[in-house]
């Protein structure tokens, strides 16, 4: 029943989630209704080490949130310039307007540059290189050398970073975000933001580089080659540069708050808390008991009406909350706006559209996502329903008197969520290669689909389409160096022979002539 304890601690105080979590755990353990659990908890076979391991596991999300807010060395939000506008969308699931505008700009500009390049070329295969074209080819070779020693290493390093294997804040964020994706607990806009964040930081950069190589091969002006190379580098960084601008989120406070909120969202398992059927399956509690605890409501612990009633019930408040609640009521009665702002949390939205919807249509603010789960009257009935484990089926006493744990329990332990992957003892690059392999053989797609097998068909469709795009984005990383080598070869042939040679144009002309001969014959 530990997850439920984590849930009530996190849902109760979204703004101060780690404060008092240990005290609440002790209250739950020593509650008079929890006699059966205490017998197991303090059994000598569990021992002090077992109790410490359990408490550490329960406190993992709280510890992580503490580290995010306090450990500036491990979570340097303000110094990681890879965080972009799509990262914010993936964290909050709001603020969609600016990312859409950025996406439009990043798609339109390369298309325009590509069309302009196709219209400017005059040198065809077999023509002798003019002085200007010869200088352009030399400049192309210089750019390709730069790509070999800078762009390719940077691209694959960034790919390693985005895959969640690097020791950076952005990489850790994506690792946590991936956990939420695999749990299928994210909203539609969070899903869109997360996948756009991945693609625009990896495969989009590769595609831009390949388009730049194509443009360079057909460009006949050395100055234009340099300008185009700079333009493509600028386009690739628009989403990051905008998020790093002083007006957007100068101290990264929004990003830090979004990361903390994402940890909470990952730990709470909201789909389980909003379904008596799912909760019953995962915690081996008869669904009839759960329905009885929530007055026959199949949405279980999620009910906005009950949450609103319980939020004003003094019996579910701490002493501090009671004082704030009464002061807010007095301030509201007297019309004291300043005092009301002091004792009542402001409604904060991330994004202009969300602020508009919140004002006129009652959309929940960013930091009030879990208010519908604050059904304290139901939590009180549920917290002690879960059956305790039978220690006789877990521990076996050997002939020599030693006690060992069953293999099935060891397997269960290996499937627990680990917020600190580096503790597994597996090197980062091995984890990265495993992930790369899983994407190429569609094992990663299978995991994503497994998480949404009981959700709406829209989520399934999104993940199938995303799986195909994701596979292509990984494959393109394999072909990028080969394409750069082909650009090297074409440029060297041009310089050695002093003649224009465009394999693609030659192929197009050959196909056109073949079709004309086919139809004329």
Topology:
Blueprint lengths: L1 H11 L8 H9 L5 H7 L5 H24 L14 H8 L4 H24 L10 H32 L6 H15 L4 H14 L1 H16 L3 H15 L1 H6 L9 H16 L1 H4 L2 H8 L3 H7 L10 H8 L7 H16 L2 H7 L8 H10 L14 H7 L8 H4 E3 L5 E3 L1 H8 L13 H13 L2 H9 L5 H41 L5 H18 L1
Antiparallel strand pairs: 1-2
Helix pairs in contact: 4-13, 5-9, 5-13, 6-10, 6-11, 7-10, 7-11, 7-26, 8-13, 10-11, 10-26, 18-19, 25-26
A few lines on this structure:
With 521 residues, the protein is mostly helical.
Features:
521 residues, mainly alpha, disordered N terminus
Termini gap = 80 Å
Number of strands: 2
Q: Cα-atom Rg, whole angstroms?
A: 29 Å
- SSE string, helices as H and strands as E: HHHHHHHHHHHHHHHHHHHHHHEEHHHHH
The average pLDDT value, as a whole number, equals: 80
The global form is elongated
Strand content: under 5%
Adjacency order of strands in the biggest sheet? 1-2
Report the sheet with the most strands, covering strand number, pairing sense and barrel closure: 2 strands, antiparallel
What structural class should be given to the helix and strand makeup?
mainly alpha
Low-confidence stretches: 1-17, 413-423
Q: What portion of residues is helical?
A: 55-70%
Tell me the number of helical segments per DSSP (H or I, 4 or more residues long).
Answer: 27
């Amino acid at each position: 029943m530990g997850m439920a304890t984590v849930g009530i601690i996190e849902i109760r105080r979204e703004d101060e989630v780690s404060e008092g979590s240990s005290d609440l755990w002790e209250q739950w353990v020593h509650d008079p209704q929890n006699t059966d659990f205490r017998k197991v908890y303090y059994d000598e076979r569990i021992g002090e080490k077992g109790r410490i391991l359990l408490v550490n596991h329960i406190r993992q999300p709280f510890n992580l949130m503490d580290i995010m807010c306090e450990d500036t060395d491990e979570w340097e939000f303000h110094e990681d310039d890879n965080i972009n506008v799509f990262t914010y969308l993936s964290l909050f699931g709001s603020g969609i307007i600016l990312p859409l505008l950025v996406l439009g700009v990043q798609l339109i500009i390369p298309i325009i540059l590509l069309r302009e390049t196709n219209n400017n070329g005059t040198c065809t295969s077999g023509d002798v290189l003019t002085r200007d074209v010869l200088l352009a080819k030399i400049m192309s070779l210089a750019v390709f050398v730069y790509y070999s020693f800078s762009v390719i290493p940077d691209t694959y390093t960034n790919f390693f970073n985005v895959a969640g294997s690097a020791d950076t804040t952005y990489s850790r964020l994506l690792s946590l975000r991936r956990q939420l994706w695999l749990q299928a607990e994210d909203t539609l806009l969070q899903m869109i933001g997360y996948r756009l964040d991945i693609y625009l930081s990896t495969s989009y950069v590769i595609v831009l580089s390949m388009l730049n190589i194509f443009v360079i091969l057909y460009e006949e002006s050395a100055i234009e080659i340099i300008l185009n190379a700079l333009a493509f580098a600028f386009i690739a960084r628009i989403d990051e540069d905008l998020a790093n601008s002083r007006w957007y989120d100068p101290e990264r406070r929004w990003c830090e708050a979004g990361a903390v909120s994402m940890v909470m969202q990952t730990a709470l398992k909201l789909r389980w808390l909003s379904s008596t059927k799912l909760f019953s399956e995962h915690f081996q509690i008869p669904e009839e008991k759960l329905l009885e605890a929530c007055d026959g409501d199949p949405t279980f612990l999620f009910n906005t009406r009950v949450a609103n009633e319980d939020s004003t019930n003094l019996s579910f408040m701490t002493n501090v909350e009671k004082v704030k609640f009464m002061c807010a009521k007095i301030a509201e009665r007297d019309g004291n706006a300043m005092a009301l702002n002091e004792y009542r949390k402001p409604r904060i939205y991330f994004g202009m559209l969300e602020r508009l919807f919140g004002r006129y249509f009652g959309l929940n603010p960013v930091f009030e996502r879990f208010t519908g789960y604050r059904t304290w009257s139901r939590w009180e009935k549920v917290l002690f329903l879960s059956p305790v484990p039978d220690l006789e089926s877990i521990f076996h006493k050997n002939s020599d008197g030693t006690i060992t744990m069953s293999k099935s329990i060891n397997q269960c332990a290996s499937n627990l969520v680990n917020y600190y992957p580096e503790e597994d003892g597996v090197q980062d690059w091995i984890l990265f290669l495993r992930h790369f392999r899983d994407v190429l053989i569609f094992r990663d797609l299978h995991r994503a689909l497994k998480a949404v097998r009981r959700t709406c068909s829209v989520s399934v469709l999104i993940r199938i389409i995303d799986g195909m795009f994701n596979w292509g984005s990984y494959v393109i990383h394999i072909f990028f160096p080969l394409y750069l080598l082909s650009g090297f070869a074409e440029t060297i042939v041009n310089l050695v022979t002093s003649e224009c040679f465009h394999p693609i144009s030659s192929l197009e002309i050959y196909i056109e002539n073949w079709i004309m001969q086919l139809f004329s014959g």
